[in-house]
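G., the chain you wanted modeled:
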Amino acid sequence: AGENFDQSPLRRTFKSKVLAHYPQNIEWNPFDQDAVNMLCMPKGLSFRTQADNRDPQLHSFIITREDGSRTYGFVLTFYEEVTSKQICTAMQTLYQMHNAEQYSSVCASSSCSMDSLASSIDEGDATSLAKLQRYNSYDISRDTLYVSKCICLITPLPFMQACKKFLIQLYKAVTSQQPPPLPLESYIHNILYEVPLPPPGRSLKFYGVYEPIICQRPGPNELPLSDYPLREVFELLGLENLVQVFTCVLLEMQILLYSQ
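Predicted structure as tokens:
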């Protein structure tokens, strides 16, 4: 995905795709495969090895349609082991090609031929190149390859905390050595077809995979639902920036937040 061939293969991003979605069709909310794919994995598919951090990550997104209606997506991205021998072999081949290009570029900077590479490049270049390949490499016989995957809930209202808890419980059920009491399909069917939206001004308690989950919907005379933790805003923007943004809001200025 993109022109990032200068990066080593494990640092590149690859094209992702939607593997499955349920239900297949909703009249009032048609499934936009391209938008959901891009928003679930905005940086594309990525690979890791056992040496990399593979902690699950949560993020959210909003799809706004032409009529102004919104749907909210909540995504849990995790890494699972690659079992395909073909993909593992392809990753090793990419690294062999990448290392060959690295050698040739070092060789060119040292004005030597490939035959005399080992004796011609200076000691500093050789050491840095060796370190780079040792810490940023993939060996099919030694390393375990992992690939990113995500599960996403798309909802008509931004019940962030409830969706977050459900996705974490579902992920634990997938990765746990002991299966949950019921098949995974039962929990997915339950949240899609049997858990209703709470009426305005009321709370709803439903059962996730392991623990009950509560979500609350504001009444008609209350502020709109905002289930996002303010602490994260302070951590990301800092106090001074947040005060400046709030000042701009009060002064009705246009605000653009840009992020990777």
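The chain has eight helices and six strands.

Shout if anything looks off.
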